Amino acid sequence: MSKKVREHWQNLLGSQKTESPQDDCQVGKTTGQGPMSRRKMLQLLGIQAVIGAGVVKGAVAAPKNFNPKHYNREITPDQLPNSQAWLATNPTLCVGCRTCEIVCSLSHDGQCQPSLSRITVQYDPTKTLAKFAAMADVCRQCNMADCYLACAYDALTLDKATGARIIDPEKCTGCGECFAACPWDKIVKDEETGVYSKCDLCGGDPQCVKYCPADALSFVDLR
Q1: Of the candidates 165, 179, 192, 12, the residue with the CA atom closest to the CA atom of residue 95
Q2: Using an 8 Å Cβ cutoff, are 99 and 136 in contact?
Q3: How wide is the angle at C-alpha 206 spanned by C-alphas 198 and 62, nearest 5°?
Q4: How far apart are CA 73 and CA 205, in angstroms?
Q5: Of 223 and 41, which is predicted with more confidence?
Q6: Cα distance between residue 35 and residue 40, in whole Å
Q7: Most trustworthy range by pLDDT among 75-89, 141-155, 195-209
Q8: Contact in structure between 163 and 221 (CB atoms under 8 Å)
């Protein structure tokens, strides 16, 4: 199924030819109906470069929108052990089907409810590929994680297997400090229970990666 989905969208992208002879210079063949133009190739590579840089930067140190004086852990950000894994996304393959959202909420909460999903799909994030651009937005598992440092109830812990910053629902009081601290807005609140959650990388076997029909998600193990 993933191969068919990928070929379908590659066909669409490959068929978007320009009238300029220079733009239509063949820099390589797609699996679609015609050659990919130089401009289209640069657009695709540009998007991947921007997204890739964002993932790496986010994992190293997240931009701050939370006041450090409100940190509730007795350690400084640089004393927090680094994450050992993260999720990577490829917007040139994402078709916006939102399967990842359904699988995430089903595996964690036992219901198909995208509002509870730890991963969300954003459409046309770069305004470059118009209707063709979609991207899964994921937790960066920041090294100097504001969410972890902000929790006063030890509800945020470190997964021994992946280093993922995860929320223990048994300890979460619903205070919202982690939600306020996250600069990426990747903390999710269950409106019925008042408990917060975030991506836990499924203990090293992310279900969103396993069931993505377009192979647009990857699990990156840094160990």
Answers
A1: 12
A2: no
A3: 45
A4: 29
A5: 223
A6: 10
A7: 195-209
A8: no
